[in-house]
Design a protein that fits this description.
By secondary structure, this protein is of the alpha/beta class. It has 14 helices and eight strands. The chain has a domain at 61-111 and 122-337: Methylmalonyl-CoA mutase (TIM Barrel, Alpha-Beta Barrel). It has helices at 6-17, 25-36, 65-76, 91-94, 104-112, 128-132, 137-162, 167-173, 184-205, 232-247, 266-282, 296-318, 322-327, 330-347, and strands at 46-47, 53-54, 83-85, 96-99, 122-126, 174-180, 215-220, 251-253.
């Protein structure tokens, strides 16, 4: 039997769709109000930690089609899927100068990075600590962009006389390393928004060059991992890993479920490694570029994050850039406010960690370990005391 032509297939699809009624957004709202049986529709609208309104239904009118198209084009650029890395993989890290702390270490990096030859080294803007200290997605993106911009500013200034690197060379040296949490749709939107906004900034620095795909490395979150009922960490890591795949991260590291309270063993490392392998090789999530494109809810979240992150980025720049904003306490204070809200919601069981503040296993036996834990944050008076301190949400109870 001959294979139907593309035109024939498209016509068959149109004929099939004719059998289904076309419903407008108003029709959907009417049905929602009917199902509510008198309950106010507004009560279904919630607000997340980024102050984004989450409605029960979204439609084309909720998104900017032109912006959605531009975001999709950036996300599709040079897409090669998500590469899984594990504790025994060194290759993805070889080409990065890591500076994880976002305080003085970053300023020292700026002073010293451009004195030597980069050759194959990249400047990896790591904001893991920001996420694991309770920051929201808007803050993560804005701070990452501000750090990268400060790197370019100094690099271009220092190169005015030496001409070691062109602006395009410096732009290509920038990469991002982020932590991914369990707020599934927001984490997908965070990766897409970061990629789009960096392309926007790179064009401002060098209008004549074609933006290249910035490398985004994703690492599963530590903020929500628990010692109690630890196998729930496997489920949390699976959701985070899937968000990284769908969001279009270039590389992914899945942390073993027991990584934060004891030395990972062969079993926990294998489980972590297999999470990404199953998502990649069995679910084939790397086979489709920008899976989120066209989904009204995800496009809406991405656009909202783009706008809010851009506004915050500009505010940081108006304060003199990342280093000055950090030294003034502005960045610490804004993260502290969001972390405080999450801390309170966790105490009130509005923010749930299964097995910890809800559905706790009363028969679980906890054994002490000698694995070193650097967490020293006091939660009686919630304060970071002029520095970003990652913490485990479980420890705040």
């Amino acid at each position: 039997m001959a294979t139907p032509s593309k035109a024939s297939q498209e016509q068959s699809l149109k004929d099939l769709l004719k059998e289904f009624p076309t419903n407008s957004y108003e029709d959907w709202l009417a049905q929602i109000n009917k199902d509510l049986k008198g309950k106010d529709y507004q009560t279904l609208i919630s607000q997340n930690y980024d102050n984004i309104n989450i409605k029960p239904a979204f439609a084309a009118l909720d998104i900017d089609r032109d912006l959605a198209k531009n975001i999709n084009e950036i996300c599709l650029q040079d897409y090669k899927g998500t590469e899984n890395i594990n504790l025994n993989t060194e290759k993805p890290f070889n080409n990065f100068n890591y500076f994880i702390d976002i305080g003085s270490d970053f300023e020292n990096f700026l002073e010293n990075a451009l004195k030597g030859e980069f050759t194959e080294k990249n400047a990896n803007i790591s904001i893991h600590n920001l996420h694991n200290a309770g920051a929201n997605a808007t803050q993560e993106i804005a701070v990452a962009l501000s750090m990268a911009t400060e790197f370019l500013d100094k690099g271009i200034k220092d190169n005015n006389n030496q001409q070691k690197y062109t602006t395009e060379d410096l732009i290509k040296k920038v990469a991002f390393s982020i932590a991914v949490g369990t707020d599934f749709y927001m984490e997908i939107a965070k990766i897409r928004a970061l990629r789009y906004l960096w392309a926007k900034i790179s064009l401002l620095f060098s209008p004549s060059h074609t933006p290249t795909r910035v490398q985004i490395h994703a690492h599963t979150s530590l903020f929500n991992k628990t010692k109690k009922d630890p196998y729930n960490n496997v489920l949390r890591a699976t959701m985070e890993a899937m968000a990284a795949f769908v969001g279009g991260a270039d590389t992914l590291f899945v942390s073993p479920h027991n990584n934060h309270f004891e030395q990972p063993d062969e079993f926990s490392e294998r489980i972590a490694r297999n999470i990404a392998i199953i998502l990649d090789k069995e679910s084939n999530l790397s086979k489709v570029a920008d899976i989120a494109a066209g989904a009204y809810y995800l496009e809406y979240l991405t656009e909202q994050l783009c706008q809010k992150s851009w506004d915050l980025f500009k505010e940081i720049e108006q304060k003199g850039g990342f280093v000055k904003a950090f030294e003034s306490g502005f960045i610490v204070k804004m993260v502290e406010e969001v972390a405080q809200k999450k801390f309170e919601d966790f105490r009130d069981k509005k923010l749930t960690l299964v097995g910890v503040n809800k559905y706790e296993n009363k028969q679980e036996i906890h054994t002490e370990t000698h694995f070193e834990n650097q967490q020293n944050t006091s939660f009686n008076t919630f304060s970071f005391i002029n520095e970003i301190q990652p913490f485990f949400l479980e420890d705040t109870l």
